[in-house]
Amino acid sequence: MRSSALFLSLAALAEVGKARPPVYTLEDDYEPANFFDYFTFFNTSDPTHGFVQYVNQSAAKATGLIANDKSTVYIGADHSNITPNGRPSVRITSKKAYNRFLLVLDLEHMPFGCGTWPAFWTVGPNWPNNGEIDIIEGVHTNPTDAMTLHTSDSCGITNDGAFSGTILTPNCYVAAPGQGNNAGCGIATTNNETYGAGLNAIGGGVYATEWNSTDITIWFFPRGNIPKDLTHGQHPDPATWGEPLSQFQGACDIEAHFADQQIVFDDTFCGDWAGNVWYPSLYPSCTAQAATCTDFVANNPDAFADAYWSINSLKVYQQTSDWHTPGHAPWGVDPYLPKSISSLCPIPTASMG
Ligand SMILES: *[C@@H]1O[C@H](CO)[C@@H](O)[C@H](O)[C@H]1NC(C)=O
Ligand SMILES: *[C@@H]1O[C@H](CO)[C@@H](O)[C@H](O)[C@H]1NC(C)=O
Ligand SMILES: *[C@@H]1O[C@H](CO)[C@@H](O)[C@H](O)[C@H]1NC(C)=O
Ligand SMILES: *[C@@H]1O[C@H](CO)[C@@H](O)[C@H](O)[C@H]1NC(C)=O
User: Fold this and answer.
1) In angstroms, what is the span from residue 78 Cα to ligand 2's centroid?
2) Are 57 and 66 in contact (CB under 8 A)?
3) pTM, to two decimals
4) What are the chain's domains?
5) How many angstroms does the Cα of residue 193 sit away from the middle of ligand 3?
6) What confidence tier does 38 reach under pLDDT thresholds 50, 70, 90?
7) Contact assessment for residue 225 and residue 234, using Cβ atoms and an 8 Å cutoff
8) Predicted confidence (pLDDT) at residue 12 exceeds the cutoff of 60
């Protein structure tokens, strides 16, 4: 006699022998209580030449630059001291690397203000050949997010995708002729809830980034409008989310240009971007306060009280053909499986292993 389990799966197969698309299933939950265990702390000088002192985990904890509990992660910068040699801050890189993902960040607050240059991004070990995906990035008092890819040669983006943003630079190659040095391919948004003061004013929201074989797509959902399959579901489905902010595709073999991406959070000061745009014509409210970006950052500790990330959750989903784990939520239950199979699903226990 065959086991009843086999009988059931044969029955399921018979039922669903037709189209049964892969689904996203939780792979890693960077749960706040253990958040920093999943990252390494960058401890050398900033490759982007920022006016920053990146500190290690024990120093960051001892000086209050990082804190976490069961529900929130805080990553900030020194906001008590005059710092003539660069402001203490934190840059962390996930120990784990990914190939393709659906990366979901629930963010309550992000660093903002004159002198700052925060970023939430992913990068491969062999830059630029493994690619870089900048999901949240900006400087000073910018009102909106800048999304950018940086790659080796022969990767470009077009307007063919359906997205609300505007292409600023189409060539992702870091040394593309006719673009600024390391400009990469950039997409801008006019949505002022996606960055800085606007994001913080609404209690943030969720950034979801899908990297598959053909596209890199970024959605932002403000706090009041997060899809239910992200808040309660087990199998988030980007096809149901509506228009993204950006979609990078068109003239790029994504598979050839992106690999082994690690997740990074940082907040640097001045440096190659923020330091080079300290102009009254661009940021009058900042430049009115100091002659140079580094003067401002060194001498105004109070201004950096707002320069922090507050993270509610960070989750990585991967495509699987398996609807079984997990499958009991009111959203994301496998519509293809008969109830008797569905109810055998184990309770979700996914976490970083
Ligand atoms: C700096 O970081 C590297 C990589 O995480 C680590 O191996 C090294 O021990 C760190 N050094 C200091 C002084 O913290
Ligand atoms: C961390 O940094 C502090 C301050 O620079 C230093 O004294 C300490 O040795 C470092 N710890 C590790 C583990 O490298
Ligand atoms: C964002 O834009 C809206 C509409 O233009 C405006 O009312 C609001 O004040 C802006 N928010 C910020 C923080 O600038
Ligand atoms: C990649 O993701 C985008 C956005 O969800 C989607 O439109 C596209 O069909 C996906 N490509 C593949 C091969 O699944």
Assistant:
1) 16
2) yes
3) 0.88
4) 1-20+330-342 (no CATH), 23-320 (2.60.120.200)
5) 8
6) very high
7) no
8) no
Atom 1 of ligand 1, residue of closest alpha carbon:
43
Is residue 45 in contact with ligand 1, taking CB distance under 6 Å? no
Residues 175-228: tens digit of each pLDDT: 999 999 999 999 999 999 999 999 999 999 999 999 999 999 999 999 999 999
87 with 243: CB under 8 angstroms? Answer: no
| Residue 21 pLDDT level (bands cut at 50, 70, 90) | confident
- The Cα 265–Cα 320 span in angstroms is 27
Distance of CA 111 to the CA centre of its chain: 14
For ligand 2, what atom is nearest to the CA of residue 57?
1
CA distances from 347 to 23, 214, 324, 329, 339 (A): 17, 33, 10, 10, 15
Query: What is the Å distance from ligand 1's center to 88 Cα?
Result: 16
Beta carbon of 43 within 6 Å of any ligand 1 atom: yes
Question: Is the minimum distance from the CB of 299 to ligand 1 under 6 angstroms?
Answer: no
Supply the residue whose CA is at minimum distance from atom 6 of ligand 3.
192
Token representation of residue 193: 């809830």
Catalytic residue ranges: 132, 137
Residue 180, both tokens: 């600024």
**72 touches ligand 4 (CB under 6 Å):** no
Q: Which ligand is nearest to the CA of 222?
A: 3
CA 56 to ligand 1: nearest atom: 14
191 ligand 3 Cβ < 6 A: no
Q: Rounded to the nearest whole angstrom, what is the distance from the C-alpha of residue 190 to the centroid of ligand 2?
A: 42
Q: Tell me which of 3-12, 174-183, 245-254, 255-264 is least confident.
A: 3-12
